[in-house]
Design a protein that fits this description.
about 260 residues, alpha/beta, six-stranded mixed beta sheet, four-stranded mixed beta sheet, 11 helices
């Protein structure tokens, strides 16, 4: 059985980390399989991705400690780069990515969820970065994305003290968008993904790029990024379809990604 599963439901792709007995911990095999799966997503037909973990106990409980325990400094840095490169691919993936966090999202799991655009959590979800208790720092972006997501003070508390937060607190902190009973989580993720997939794909992709790229620069440069991406949507079939439908006071025809 593959350690990463992929399923297509209409225009939504579902990636499942599939090491349930190991609480879906990330080892090199999982990272390589996730990377390969991302490369194979058909962007012509897929308009939104969902990433989740197998079972109901864990999204991803962290990186595989057994694999990391004997690494040298150079190997540790290389392993961190491997994870960071793949999570950065998730973060900059052309289409939106939703994390459906079903249970533990610790260490690499918290980091993977933060690389996604939107996080939905089950009511048994738990987030944390426990790395300093193991003698290491977070290595897959945790020191950077957590502070950017929830603010520096609370992020430093979680990072320095290995403080874990439950789903409702994660929602209050802005770490997750919404919390659902575990049995309703995937339905909620699919519903949201379906809403995203129904909108004009070129515009959705341009909007994601505008947000992500704009956050890395000052406001004047960010506005320039938005202007170019705004302009890029015009003369597309989807733009003409959407605006014509609005002017004619009707629903647009299904968007064609053209």
């Amino acid at each position: 059985m593959s350690v990463v599963l992929y399923e297509q439901k209409d225009a939504v792709g579902i990636i499942t980390i599939n090491r349930e007995k190991a609480l879906n911990a990330l080892n090199s095999e999982v990272l390589d399989a996730l990377n390969k799966t991302l490369d194979e997503v058909n962007l012509e037909t897929t308009r939104c991705l969902i990433i989740t973990g197998a079972g109901q106990k864990s999204f991803v409980a962290g990186a595989d400690i057994g694999e990391m325990s004997t690494l040298t400094k150079a190997e540790g840095e290389a392993f961190g780069k491997k994870g960071n490169d793949i999570f950065r691919k998730v973060e900059t993936f052309p289409i939106p990515v939703i994390a459906a966090v079903n249970g533990f999202a610790l260490g690499g799991g918290c980091e993977l969820s933060m690389a996604c655009d939107i996080r939905l959590a089950s009511d048994n979800a738990r987030f944390g970065q426990p790395e300093v208790g193991l003698g290491i720092t977070p290595g897959f972006g945790g020191t950077q994305r957590l502070a950017r997501t929830i603010g520096v003070g609370k992020a430093k508390e979680m990072l320095y003290a290995c403080t874990q937060v439950k789903a409702e607190e994660a929602k209050a902190l802005g770490l997750v968008n919404a919390v659902y009973p575990i049995e309703e989580l995937m339905d909620a993720a699919l519903k949201l993904a379906g809403k995203i997939a129904a909108n004009a794909p070129i515009a959705v992709r341009a909007t994601k790029k505008a947000v992500n790229d704009g956050l890395q620069v000052d406001m004047d440069k960010a506005i320039e990024i938005e202007e170019k991406l705004f302009g890029s949507c015009f003369e597309t079939e989807d733009q003409k379809n959407g605006m014509t439908a609005f002017l004619e006071k009707r629903k647009p025809e299904p968007f064609l990604n053209k």
